[in-house]
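Entry type: protein chain
Record version: 2
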Amino acid sequence: MIRRAALCAFTAILFFARPSDACCPAPPPHQEVLNADQTIILVWDKENKTEHFIRRASFESNADDFGFLVPTPSQPELSESGDEAFPFFAKITEPEVVKKERPSSDSGGCCGMMPGAKSAGGAAPDPQSVRVLEEKSVAGFQASVLEASSASALVGWLKDHGYELSPAVEAWAKPYVDQKWKITALRVAKDKNAPEPANAKHIAAAALRMSFKTDRPLFPYREPQASQEGQQALATRGRLLRIFFVGDARSAAAFENKDAWGGHVAWSGKMKAESRSQALKMLGLPEASSPKSWWLTEFEDPWIPKNSDLYFADSPTQQDVRRPPVIEYVKNETSDGVQYAGLFLLPALALRLRRRR
């Protein structure tokens, strides 16, 4: 059992273990608390009401071991998915590079591409009120898929299995448990033999695919309530959530509680058949997977904490969206040649005119 494991929600701030007591939202001195940027691939099989949720994320943690929770409406199938799919999608949606001749008056430069505290008081929960649906090692994680009768029972099970967490996690879990969602607990162990920066321990997990039944495609956006220090750290540092959403049409996203969403569509368009086949192989999905024709929509989101999950649906507008082109200026050889020729011809013409006079 790992005595100093930390816990966070899938999209949450990490909760780090203190040397002598349980975890809390505020970190120990000189320790980072932020979950790093995340990139997600969602493949929505509307025909079979199945979402393939592929996650790749990196963490900065001063804890040797930590974990996080992923809520899903039904029991997920867990498998490792290829990391190479992420740069593959990014290449498809990158801006077009347009080459232009540099004006003679231009002085240089070119446009660039913008790149745990103990649970709340009360009697100890009945351990039988949490069912372990599956346990397995996958993509570098130790995974336990759980079904809990209450949030307090879930917290009790996690504590009994070496997790230390804050009361905010219990409050975060309650709406999901009340709706009978499944909770997948994933533990990440840092490779102690891997090289690391002097002031941080960077952990990059392999891509994990979770396939589950759902009536609507979603991203579990809700987070446990952060401390004031954690909120200030988020506001200062910022972070980016990037979602590649694959469906049979251009997609739009909205919070379930109708709050304003700060994300936007960065790119949207139909994928070529050969690109779809390549991506399926990278993601470990069969060629016969639905949809048969893919429409890719890329969302960029500043990832500001909200008390709601993000749901996807067909967009009322189905036009393509492209990033603004990147302008790359090249040397104008023709104009430069004319200019240099002029420098030599002008003195010769002046000398000839003088002789005639």
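Comment: Confidence is low (pLDDT under 50) at residues 1-34, 105-125.
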